[in-house]
Amino acid sequence: MNEGLSVRQLVKSFATRHGQRVRAVDGVSFELPPGGALALVGESGCGKSTTARCVARLEEADSGSIRLDGTEWRAKHGRALLPLRRKLQMVFQDPYSSLDPRMRVLDLVEEPLRIHGIGTARERRLRALEWIEAVGLSAEQALRLPHEFSGGQRQRIGIARALILEPEYLLLDEPVSALDVSIAAQIVNLLADLRQRFHLGYLFISHDLGVVRTLCESVAVMYLGRIVESGPTAQVFRTPRHPYTRALLSAIPPVDPVRARAQERTVLRGDPPSPLAPPGGCAFHPRCALFAQQGDAACRTQPPPLVPLSSERHLACPPGMAQG
Amino acid sequence: MSAERRTLLEVEGLEVEFRTPRGRVQAVRGLDLCVGAGEILAIVGESGSGKSVAQLAIMDLLPDSASVRARRMHWQGQELSSLSRAQRRALCGRELAMVFQDPLSALHPQLTIGRQLSEVLEVHERLTRVQVRARCIAALAEVGIPSPEERLRAYPHELSGGMRQRVMIAMALIASPRLLFADEPTTALDVTVQAQILELFRELCARRGLAIVLVTHSLGVVARVADRVQVMYAGQALERGSAEEVLAAPAHPYTRALLRSVPDARIEGDAHSEPAAGAPARLATIPGQPPDLAQPIRGCAFAPRCERASELCRREAPRFAPNPRAACHHPEGSA
């Protein structure tokens, strides 16, 4: 019985040097069915990467639930996590720092199999070669060291390493953000192909909404540790309902000077607030255009819950609910 | 409209070569560049295209391992290479200024904002302490920093990324330069903050007649603020023109391919396909890699990756003639 990945009410806080607690993730919930692709988007400090790291169990969340295929993983430790790692692997942003510079590509890609004690040395080697070719590198490149590769090729190595355990899910943390446009497009296409070929589920962390739209059919927009709006990507991007989603979409300049300049823009005032001193109530209210117009007192006092807007969409903005 | 603007900087045939353990690397291979007052010129290109190196060469900020040559490097009609190093440094500090991508590493972590701002003035002008303070406050206010008096006492780590970038811009502008080089000034910032900084650039051009050379890899940034654009590849310009022309009707196959590989987040109308598990959406890509600049390049540098390349392209490097828009033997629209 395969029921997918289900994350409920995830909370993760960190201690600062001054003894304060910072809530990086504050009650995040989402479902990711097998083969599905969900993007977590938002600006730096919104908690999207921390959410992914908690789900991959690189961090331990304070509370909440992470269920995959009927098992609860949030509070497991050490070797008890090995079965989770076989189902769920992570790909990182920086292909320069996530590969051991002294290991050959073949050994890097094979390493997860060794750690999990899978196959004989010969079998492992053959499987590593298969995956190296599946991500678009050649067998002769397998004997080289990471520094001999460009950024895009290193990201391919990172992907092969994540896929060799044949996981059901990949958690991808800004996998193309460090790459040049034309190279990023190659990796986006590779990810789309791999997903289809192996029926992979993607949790995709990104601030690039164009890439998100290309790869993921669902999206959740985060602001200061919470999901403020979620739903099918096409719907959310076409008719954003949260004032923050609107601002985020209008802040990206389209690659068309006429549209880029004519476009009605909500230039947000101020900076994203510090998670150390989050504004009370809705964390977005000090920058919110809707709040500035309507001044709903509840925005200042109560964090709005994420509630259904339709069968597929959710929204955490009571004044936005009321608007058409 | 750019023709009426007074030309400030005019560079012709800029070449920059680095001596490295692997041999000579030609980072910039014959670049022309021209900016007028009140104008934003965007230089677009991918990593290694030479866009940052060209800026540093004009500012005379490259290390000794670089050799810089140019047929002409005029600042308001004066040849820069004829100046002594001290004269050139003084001129560049006063009239040309620079903003970098990462404000945290460009600001001194142990000095207050006020201290770092006033240092710039002390180098370039003779002012009393009261005058310096007033100028610092005015500079911070001009770039939209709230309560500037208090910010003078702040340290860089106490400010957000967007505020730090504003401080960098204030610092670059405090000695009233005529031209600002901005190297990926918004790349490290969030999109909502990027939008604020770009807005500020446009204001500064309009208000002060400031010229800005904006180095970026983002075509969206070009679309939003640039008057003219120059597309670079392997140390050369491949296409140049007004931002409208270049983005709406790219003439060079490289520009065209670059534009096609940027996914657009915006969805207009209902006709757009939605990504689904069944059929993956695909982006257009440019096959292959940029050339190794340590090797001599024969013909057009883009030819090995170009869908329109012919025998002629591999043999002979194209120029901006007869087509003034693109250095290409087979520009878009030609047979």
Provide a descriptive summary of the structure in words.
The complex is a heterodimer of chains A (324) and B (335). By secondary structure, chain A is α/β, with parallel strands linked by helices. Chain A has a domain of 87 residues. Chain A is built from 13 helices and 12 strands. In chain A, the strands form 2 sheets. An 8-stranded mixed sheet of chain A has the order 6-7-8-3-9-10-12-11, sandwiched between helices. In chain A, strands 2-1-4-5 form a 4-stranded antiparallel sheet. In chain A, a hairpin with a 5-residue loop joins strand 1 and strand 2. In chain A, helix 3 packs across helix 4 and helix 3 runs parallel beside helix 5. The longest helix of chain A is centred in the middle third of the chain and has 18 residues. The radius of gyration of chain A is 21 Å and the shape is globular. Helix content of chain B is 33%, strand content 21%. In chain B, helix 4 crosses helix 5, helix 4 packs parallel to helix 7 and helix 5 crosses helix 7. Chain B is of the alpha/beta class and 335 residues long. Chain B contains 12 helices and 11 strands. In chain B, a hairpin with a 2-residue loop joins strand 10 and strand 11. Chain B has a single domain, classed as 3-Layer(aba) Sandwich (Rossmann fold), CATH 3.40.50.300. The chains are: A alpha/beta (324), B alpha/beta (335). At the A-B interface, helix 6, helix 7, helix 8, helix 9 and helix 10 of A face helix 7, helix 8, helix 9, helix 10 and helix 11 of B.
The overall average pLDDT of chain B, rounded, is: 88
Please state roughly what percent of the residues of chain A sit in beta strands, choosing from under 5%, 5-15%, 15-25%, 25-35%, 35-45% or over 45%.
15-25%
The sequence of SSEs of chain A as H and E is EEEHEEHEHHHEHEHEEHHHHHEEH
Main β-sheet of chain A: number of strands, strand sense, barrel status? 8 strands, mixed
Q: Can you lay out the helices and strands and say which pair or pack?
A:
The complex is a heterodimer of chains A (324) and B (335).
Chain A: E1 5-15, E2 21-32, E3 37-41, H1 48-55, E4 63-68, E5 71-72, H2 82-87, E6 88-91, H3 105-115, H4 121-134, H5 151-163, E7 169-173, H6 181-198, E8 201-206, H7 209-215, E9 218-223, E10 226-232, H8 233-238, H9 243-251, H10 257-262, H11 289-294, H12 297-301, E11 307-308, E12 314-315, H13 318-322
Parallel strand pairs in A: 3-8, 3-9, 6-7, 7-8
Antiparallel strand pairs in A: 1-2, 1-4, 4-5, 9-10, 10-12, 11-12
Helix pairs in contact in A: 3-4, 3-5, 4-5, 5-6
Chain B: E1 7-20, E2 23-36, E3 40-44, H1 51-58, E4 66-69, E5 72-75, E6 78-79, H2 85-95, E7 96-99, H3 103-106, H4 113-124, H5 129-142, H6 148-151, H7 161-173, E8 179-183, H8 191-208, E9 211-216, H9 219-225, E10 228-233, E11 236-242, H10 243-248, H11 253-260, H12 311-315
Parallel strand pairs in B: 3-9, 3-10, 7-8, 8-9
Antiparallel strand pairs in B: 1-2, 1-4, 1-5, 5-6, 10-11
Helix pairs in contact in B: 4-5, 4-7, 5-7
